[in-house]
Design brief:
The protein is of the alpha+beta class. The protein has three domains: 144 residues, 3-Layer(aba) Sandwich (Creatine Amidinohydrolase, Chain A, domain 1); 143 residues, Creatine Amidinohydrolase, Chain A, domain 1; 279 residues, Creatine Amidinohydrolase. InterPro entries: Creatin/AminoP/Spt16_N, Creatinase/aminopeptidase-like, Creatinase_N, Pept_M24, Pept_M24B, Peptidase_M24_C, X-Pro_aminopeptidase_P.
């Protein structure tokens, strides 16, 4: 029987407590002593590293080191006598729990602009330091305006956090893998030719790439430098003519890597990147970089060298987001493999949860074990969000040995997870019943489900943005005065980052239109603080509508049942019921043949029509 499987040890995810509020006081004291020796009145500490990605290696987790906050976005400011931490609405519960709130005030950026707050709390004439490798021109410009009006100077400095971080982890040294066109769909040579066409339209003599996912996609390489993301950390300069240069840690390149990249890119150590930027000042044509992702230091080096610049979005982002047929086939395969793992897990969970005794960590370990049954899985795609009862209401909850909660039968269980398979990346959230369900829980779940179905069934003209369709997911919650404070969907990479730009389904989405081939998440939710959280997430891809030329619609990629015990059928329209029944029939058809008899019997029951 599925429930007899024993709970193994996890290998991809750890559960150690990554923050210790008791360390905030001594680290603030050490940092303030360093600020005094530098002659500045404060320092900005962003979450970002030099590559400005969402995820950073342990050696660059400066914000977490100083404040204890481990979320994926945030900014701290430390002055001689005050400290503040700015986070978005996802982290308003997590941040105060991880830092020392007696010493660090926590602010929600939806209500408080960091630049305006600093202008109010720093004296005229103050000097506020920043590391020019850790801030983009775009973000710094937004902060500079209110500070200049208040007479506060932003001063580039050598990072003082590094000076006090005596046990700083070593830089990652993961291996580099070269992917063939059977997995990427296009060779690097073809991608470079397409990039140079875009460069010609901008009269650019070279492009500077600082995002690891951009250079990984362009050069068809993957690595292990970031936990759960197959990234190689590095930079690239692509000239309009001639061979590109890849700047990577020299000691991680094997002879096989060098042979595979020979003739495609010149290989240089990352330490040579600054000098290469200075040399671009003598090159013909403008130098293209992205002011929203490249560090300020890149811009200042090019300006000092006398280079003409083109400041536009990274030209890799949009082509990377529009998956080709080989990439889409790989993503479909990955979702199928993940669906098999989820069926095994949910069959076990349904049998084990009502008996009591399961912890959130037990649940993570078992889910990971079910994924590891598949030989082509290489990692999880992010740390699993395993929130039972009230912990499910913490949007980006991370279970640790300290927070680990025992599931009480009757709790709602929110599980947001994903895998990195050789064929592609997955991301799925399911909310499960573990016992009797209240009518209120059913109503909230069904309203979230209706929003998810509305996105799944949407058809819209080409040129539509994610912001324009986001309301489809929220409308049923809005009808009863409820909402959720995160985006409805984000882009997903093909064996790359589980969070991928440049577009998504969110009120804050850019004006970039949705296009065929993009893979997005579809994940509305509802969170009742102190009680439970609900989120339902599938991955979807955009395709041309076969019935209506000039229109787009979605194909659902994820293959996993949705808990019908939480559905209030009376709240569903006939078309919504038909969608859910058809989806479940497809899950059984595509996943069922790959399961053992007991698990298939569970899946048959879980996918019966409403």
């Amino acid at each position: 029987m599925p429930e007899t499987r024993s709970i193994p040890d996890a290998i991809f995810q750890t559960f150690d407590e990554k923050s210790d509020p008791s360390q905030v006081a001594p680290r603030l004291a050490a940092l303030r002593a360093e600020l005094a020796t530098m002659g500045v009145d404060g320092i900005l500490i962003p979450r970002a590293d030099v590559h400005q990605g969402e995820y950073v290696p342990d050696c660059d987790a400066r914000l977490a080191y100083v404040t204890g906050f481990t979320g994926s976005a945030g900014l701290a400011v430390v002055t001689r006598d005050i400290a503040a931490l700015f986070v978005d609405s996802r982290y308003t519960l997590q941040a105060p729990a991880q830092t020392d709130t007696a010493l660090v005030s926590v602010h929600d950026t939806t209500d408080t602009d960091p630049g305006a707050w600093l202008a109010e709390h720093l004296p005229r004439g103050a000097k506020l330091g920043f590391d020019p490798w850790l801030h983009t021109p775009g973000r710094l410009a937004a902060m500079r305006e209110p500070l200049e009006r208040a007479g506060i100077d932003l001063v580039p400095v050598t990072n003082p956090v590094d000076a006090i971080w005596h046990d700083r982890p070593a830089a990652p040294q993961g291996p580099i893998e070269i992917l063939g066109p059977n997995r990427t769909g296009k060779t690097t040579e073809v991608k470079l030719e397409e990039l140079r066409q875009a460069m010609a339209a901008q009269e650019a003599g070279a492009v500077v790439l600082t995002l690891p996912e951009s250079l990984c996609w362009l050069f068809n390489i993957r690595g292990r430098d970031i936990p759960h993301n197959p990234f190689v950390l590095g930079f690239a300069i692509i000239p309009a003519e001639g061979i590109p240069t890849l700047f990577l840690a020299d000691n991680k390149l094997t002879p096989e890597n060098r042979r595979a990249l020979a003739g495609i890119a010149r290989l240089e150590d990352k330490a040579g990147f600054e000098d290469a930027l200075r040399a671009l000042g003598t090159q013909p044509g403008a130098i293209w970089f992205d002011p929203d992702t490249a560090p300020v230091r890149v811009k200042s080096l090019l300006k000092e060298a006398g280079a003409e610049t083109v400041e536009k979005r990274d030209p890799i982002l949009l082509p990377k987001a529009k998956k080709n047929e080989v990439e889409l086939a790989g993503m479909r395969e990955a979702q199928k493999l993940d669906g098999i793992a989820l069926a095994k897990f949910l069959a076990w969970f349904d049998a084990a949860a009502p008996r009591g005794g399961l912890t959130e960590i037990d649940i993570v370990k078992m889910l990971e074990a079910c994924r590891r049954d598949e030989p082509s899985v290489v990692d999880i795609s992010f740390e699993t969000i395993s929130g039972s009862g009230p912990n499910g209401a913490i949007v980006h909850y991370r279970v640790s040995d300290k927070t680990n909660r025992t599931l009480i039968p009757g709790d709602l269980m929110l599980l947001d997870s994903g895998g990195q398979y050789l064929s592609g990346t997955t991301d799925i959230t399911r909310t499960m019943a573990t016992g009797p369900v209240t009518e209120q829980q059913k109503e909230h779940f069904t309203r979230v489900l209706k929003g998810m179905i509305a996105i799944s069934r949407a058809r819209f003209p080409k040129g539509t943005t994610g912001a324009q369709i986001d309301i489809l997911a929220r409308q049923f919650l809005w009808q009863v005065g409820l909402t959720f404070n995160h985006g409805t969907g984000h882009g997903v990479g093909a064996f790359l980052s589980v969070h991928e730009g440049p577009t998504g389904i969110t009120p804050r989405a850019t004006a970039i239109a949705l296009e065929a081939g993009m893979v997005l998440s579809n994940e509305p939710g509802y969170y009742r603080a102190g009680e439970y959280g609900i989120r339902i997430e599938n991955l979807i891809t955009l395709c041309d509508s076969p019935a209506f030329p000039g229109y787009l619609e979605f194909e659902t990629l994820t293959l996993c049942p949705i808990d019908k015990r939480l559905v209030a059928p009376a709240l569903l329209e006939a078309a919504e019921r038909e969608w859910l029944d058809a989806y479940h029939a497809r899950v059984l058809r595509e996943i069922g043949p790959h399961l053992d008899p007991d698990t298939r019997a569970w899946l048959e029951s879980a996918t019966t029509p409403l």
